[in-house]
């Protein structure tokens, strides 16, 4: 039984992993902006996010939902956790595209498109299209993963929390098949995509496969802890080094099956190792800081990065773009921290108080 697993109050080693994953995603997007050959594989950090999310949700809610906790009592705290920063991220994205159009005179969207995308983004409605050049959430590209997180939360709370563990197997297998296709097209030997299968390279079904595999694999790992605890773990001091070896790799250094092995084996081993040892002291404080800023950083880094790059390029037109990262990336972290302290935490506390007892007003492990 999952309830037999030891359950400390907070899994603070996971905080550090979440922070490293958020920084890695930011580095991946900077890799695209700067044309750097590094960080191409940092997109796998999102799969680590999904894996940890499934684990900590099951850790916090499996027993309570099985005991009859109402769905909305579970789901509303998830909305309180995610939505304030989602709104801030949309606001940052809308402000950036507006200012960019005013400054450069080039409009990324027509006015009707902008209004439509703004409304869709606010209600977390994705733009689903076969055109790979149109993002699901045009005003802030990273919202795609939060949309699928909300879908996974709903599926877990309504169905899978009370379902037998074997029900997770077909979801995980279907997700693994889709993820394999996504990896082949993105990390295979040839970038060419067979006609009719472009949706596996990038798009709704590829992203649905990623959340289906990793999120529910995280749920299954929690439920299998009594057996999995018999396996040896990796000392937590090596986990940041493993993240570097996975995420900071030149483009093309990892092929599709290496990436699949990483998602199916390496990331779960890292998760299992992280939950067995809670770091304390100075390193524990660093881990907590990384965990605290991880979500605000993830949601806001893209529009902040774009705006800072535009300003710095105007101020220092001859400075190579790669060197701008020495200012821009720490700047994104600073903005995330300021938003955490001045906006995210106060708003969540306010909403939790207003929505008592529905909100439960508690923090789940490693959140």
UniProtKB/TrEMBL annotation:
InterPro entries registered for this protein in UniProt = Acyl_transf_3_dom (IPR002656), Acyltransferase_3 (IPR050879)
- Kindly indicate whether the keyword Flavoprotein belongs to this entry: no
Provide the species name: Asticcacaulis endophyticus
GO terms of molecular function: acyltransferase activity, transferring groups other than amino-acyl groups
Q: Which UniProt keywords apply?
A: Acyltransferase, Membrane, Transferase, Transmembrane, Transmembrane helix
Bilayer-spanning residue ranges: 44-61, 81-99, 111-129, 141-160, 167-184, 204-222, 229-248, 254-275, 295-315, 321-340
List, alphabetically, the Pfam families matched: Acyl_transf_3
Query: Which superkingdom, per the lineage?
Result: Bacteria
Instruction: List the PANTHER family hit by this protein, alphabetically.
Output: ACETYLTRANSFERASE, PUTATIVE (AFU_ORTHOLOGUE AFUA_4G08520)-RELATED
Protein known as: Acyltransferase
Domain spans labelled Acyltransferase = 13-340
């Amino acid at each position: 039984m999952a309830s037999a697993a030891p359950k400390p109050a907070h899994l603070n080693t996971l905080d550090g992993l979440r922070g490293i994953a958020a920084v890695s995603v930011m580095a991946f997007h900077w890799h695209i902006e700067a044309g750097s050959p590094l960080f191409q594989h940092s997109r796998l950090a999102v799969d680590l996010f999904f894996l940890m999310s499934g684990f900590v949700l099951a850790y916090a809610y499996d027993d309570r939902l099985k005991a009859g906790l109402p769905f909305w009592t579970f789901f509303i705290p998830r909305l309180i956790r995610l939505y304030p920063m989602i709104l801030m991220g949309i606001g940052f994205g809308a402000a950036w595209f507006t200012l960019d159009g005013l400054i450069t005179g080039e409009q990324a969207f027509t006015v009707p498109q902008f209004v439509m995308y703004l409304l869709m983004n606010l209600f977390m409605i994705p733009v689903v299209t076969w055109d790979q050049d149109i993002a699901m959430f045009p005003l802030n590209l990273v919202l795609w993963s939060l949309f699928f997180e909300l879908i996974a939360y709903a599926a877990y709370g309504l169905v899978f929390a009370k379902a037998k563990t074997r029900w997770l197997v077909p979801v995980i297998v279907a997700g693994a098949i889709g993820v394999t296709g996504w990896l082949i097209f993105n990390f295979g030997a040839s970038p060419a995509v067979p006609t009719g299968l472009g949706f596996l390279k990038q798009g709704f079904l590829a992203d649905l496969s990623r959340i289906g595999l990793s999120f529910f694999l995280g749920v299954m790992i929690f439920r299998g802890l009594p057996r999995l605890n018999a396996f040896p773990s990796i000392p937590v001091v090596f986990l940041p080094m493993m993240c570097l070896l996975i995420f900071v790799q030149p483009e093309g250094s990892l092929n599709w099956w290496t990436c699949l092995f990483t998602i199916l084996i390496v990331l779960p081993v890292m998760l299992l190792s992280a939950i067995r040892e809670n770091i304390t002291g100075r390193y524990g404080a660093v881990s907590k800081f990384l965990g605290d800023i991880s979500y605000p950083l993830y949601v806001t880094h893209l529009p902040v990065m774009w705006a800072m790059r535009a300003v710095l390029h105007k101020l220092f037109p001859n400075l190579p773009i790669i060197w701008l990262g020495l200012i821009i990336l720490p700047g994104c972290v600073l903005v995330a921290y300021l938003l955490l302290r001045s906006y995210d935490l106060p708003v969540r506390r306010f909403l939790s108080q207003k929505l008592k007892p529905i909100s439960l007003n508690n923090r789940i492990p490693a959140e």
